[in-house]
Amino acid sequence: MTGLAIALAPQAVLAAGVFGALGLGLMARPSPMWARALAVLAPLAALAALRLVVPAYLPPLVDVDFKGLAWQLVIYAGALPLAICSSGDDVETALFLGATLGMGLLCAAGNLVMLFVGLEFMSLPAYLLVARAGAQGRSRRLEAAVKYFFAGAMAGALFLFGLALYYGETGRLGPGAGALGGLGRAGVSLMAAAALFKIGAVPLHWWLPDVYEAASPEVSGFLSTSMKAAAVLFLVRLVQIAPDPMFAVVLPWLGAATALYGAALALRQKGLRRLLAYSSLSHAGLLVLGVGAWARLGGDPDALRAILFYLAAYALMSNGAFLFVAATGVQTRDDLKGWAARSGGTAAAFAALLFALGGIPPTGGFMAKLLVFWQSLRAGLVWPAALAALASIVSLGYYLGLVRDMYFEVPAANCAPIDASARARERILVLACAVGAVVLGLAPLLRIRP
């Protein structure tokens, strides 16, 4: 029991935060300050608790390894911007911490049942978070939340059905099932479809643009970073627990197709949040390509580090981009025209984030894409890597187009003046994310001595 308590210390801290937020709801008039403090302190405490955890396999449910610990670091850190920008609502705080707790449970999953528990635990609060903390009108938020719910319900149903087929053939819920027959492979395919639903890979992406557009920008940043990181680990765990040769064949091509589709659709978007949603879809494709390369290389640690570095860089880039929308109130590309003349600091930070998202050196986005492409070529995935590289080139059309809009277009004559003191937290976070995204590009050049 002591070993289990230590292994799940970060999750225990987050669970305490959930109960604390629910306790605030029992008070007559709780101060928003307490909910804001709880939203920030719980992820920070979970990050601190990671230092206490020692990798251990505690059958049948829990498997805490270096992979899960590293992913938790990215997930909890990626959740901090939403925590810092918390509205102080105790219900939203409980939902946010509950979703983060579910991601932590998924990171510690040792078998397929625990994977499903983590999947549902992180998904259910997210549906309500989209419905409550939206940037659009109430009906628009509810419509997006319902779409998100049905996508998540379909993912859960596919996973359970696939689990039943897999167990029916192998009699196992954990690793070590050996070669699979037709029934087992069908089960693995359905479970993989559930993971790809959560990542938002083509053609299972239909819910993603509407959800990212309707939710508040801070929530969209959380969904596109921490939630996506957990979904990628979900896929990695599935490949690890129920390995099958088809992963190495299908995932690279699916990832390349997703990257190219997302980049092509983003070119057509006028709304900034919807553009960032399709941009997130394109980046999801590169991550799926990375998982496919990792599977093809037989679980090579370097390939896994490339995926993890990509997620860390993307957590800064995507959070920063969505926080720019929250800080400025910009809704469309027309609103962005001439922004550099109105607010030079936020324009420069957003431009740095766009360069990073486009993979322009020496940013973290460049190093992240380079590492994934390198591992793909190591795995012999020349054509999928070429398609993904084409998607990255296409993406420059809208990333550099947004920079052009800010610096070289004339603003509308009826633009309202900017209040420099408004949304100060978001502006500071945009700057911090931009600096982090640039500095992370130099990280592989640093020699860290033990």
Structure overview:
The chain is mainly α and 450 residues long. It is built from 19 helices and two strands. The longest helix has 33 residues, at 138-170. It starts with a helix and ends in an 11-residue tail after the last helix. 75% of the residues lie in helices and 1% in strands. The chain has two domains: 1-243; 249-450, no CATH class. The mean pLDDT is 88. It has a two-stranded antiparallel ribbon. It is globular.
Secondary structure topology:
Blueprint: H1 2-7, H2 9-25, H3 32-49, E1 56-58, E2 62-64, H4 66-84, H5 90-107, H6 112-132, H7 138-170, H8 182-199, H9 208-214, H10 217-241, H11 245-266, H12 272-296, H13 301-328, H14 333-336, H15 339-342, H16 344-358, H17 364-378, H18 382-408, H19 424-439
Antiparallel strand pairs: 1-2
Helix pairs in contact: 2-3, 2-5, 3-4, 3-5, 4-5, 4-10, 4-13, 5-6, 5-10, 6-7, 6-10, 7-8, 7-9, 8-10, 9-12, 10-12, 10-13, 11-12, 11-18, 12-13, 12-17, 12-18, 13-16, 13-17, 13-19, 16-18, 16-19
